[in-house]
Specification:
434 Repressor (Amino-terminal Domain); mainly alpha; 58% helix
Length: 104
Amino acid sequence: MADATGAGRESWAALRDRRMAEPGVEEAYEAARLAFELGAAVRELRLARGWSQAELASAAGMTQSAVARFEAGGTVPTLPVLGRIARALDADLTVRVAARPDVA
């Protein structure tokens, strides 16, 4: 496909659509979204508590760099690690699978 200058480059939208159609990409995208949302939720709770990443790491038995990677959405921790983070923040960890409203 040509770009606006006719130089033969694909547009971003065309490239994205082509890449999203590749096997496994949709699952990877969803995992990245989940990692980002989990990290943002933990960061919000940590900041509300007035804690640094190092303080959360100490309370949860982790390293500060592991907390930083998690909050940035760079990793999805295991359920036991999420449990330790939740306990350290005096928060509830809720994991559920629910039917979508549009599915009978």
